[in-house]
Design a protein that fits this description.
It contains three helices and five strands. It has helices at about 10-20, 30-35, 60-70, and strands at about 1-5, 25-30, 40-45, 50, 70-75. The longest helix has 13 residues, at about 10-20.
Length: about 80
């Protein structure tokens, strides 16, 4: 699952390329923040976070997101 935060569209562009190359899902964190949606995610694939870097740091929204969200990793079922 690709989680992305984009102010100018550059990170969204990168996330969309990764989505196609990895054949995975891309989720806009901008949409989640704007609509105050639940910070809980489930996936069987690795998480990829795409965001800009400001003065050698993650944006504060992303730091807060990483501290407060529930990120679940499910193992694929084996037969």
């Amino acid at each position: 699952m690709i989680l992305y935060f984009s102010s100018t569209g550059n990170s969204k562009f990168v996330a969309e390329i990764l989505k196609m190359d990895l054949q995975d899902t891309a989720v806009s964190l901008n949409h989640i923040f704007k609509n105050n949606l639940k910070l809980e995610f489930y996936t069987e694939t690795p998480y990829v976070i795409v965001c800009p870097i400001y003065a050698w740091r993650l944006p504060r929204k992303i730091e807060t997101f990483l501290k407060l969200s529930l990120i679940h990793i499910s193992e694929p079922t084996r037969h």
